[in-house]
Amino acid sequence: MSPEQRGKIIAVIDAVEDLTIATVREDGFPQATTVSYVNDGLTLYFGTNARSQKARNIARCAKVSVTINRPYKSWDEIEGLSIGGVASAVEDAGERAKVGALMFEKFPQIAQYAGDVSGQDLALIRIDPMVIAHLDYAKGFGHVDAYAL
Questions:
Q1: What is the Cα–Cα distance from 132 to 124, expressed in whole angstroms?
Q2: Residue 87, Cβ density class (10 Å: 0-12 exposed, 13-18 middle, ≥19 buried)
Q3: pLDDT 10s digits, 103-134
Q4: What CA–CA distance (Å, rounded) separates 9 from 132?
Q5: What domain range is 58 assigned to?
Q6: What total number of domains does the chain contain?
Q7: 80: domain CATH number?
Q8: pTM of the model
Q9: Which of 23, 63, 77, 94 has a CB 3.0–4.6 Å from the CB of 72, allowing a cystine?
Q10: Which of 106, 105, 85 lies closest to 149, judged by CA?
Q11: Which tens digit of pLDDT belongs to each residue from 62-97?
């Protein structure tokens, strides 16, 4: 992936507030959930209750799929990402603090819901992309550029 392509992908990630994450349930079925997220470049982070289904799914199977889509009014504006990667709970105190700062910056309203990000009930999840498909209808109907990281 060229620096220009990387920049275009990060621009999509930076422009959107929510993603849909698919995890693998214990019975083998996928579970798709929408969450608000922050990012540090291509690395994605979100918070969830440590006892949530998605947190338990990730603890059991780290493989996840993510979609991030820009809003659009007409099909020629469709642009989004499909990402396959691995997810893990953020345990390092320094990384947790960094993610907390990113979250409070992007979502200042989070204070009334989340309080202290070091709380025991909050799991911070990191997603490290392994493959990215960039869907961009501006380049043609269904046009996708795919990258392995």
A1: 22
A2: buried
A3: 999 998 887 765 555 556 889 999 999 999 99
A4: 9
A5: 3-148
A6: 1
A7: 2.30.110.10
A8: 0.92
A9: 77
A10: 85
A11: 999 999 999 999 999 999 999 999 999 999 999 999
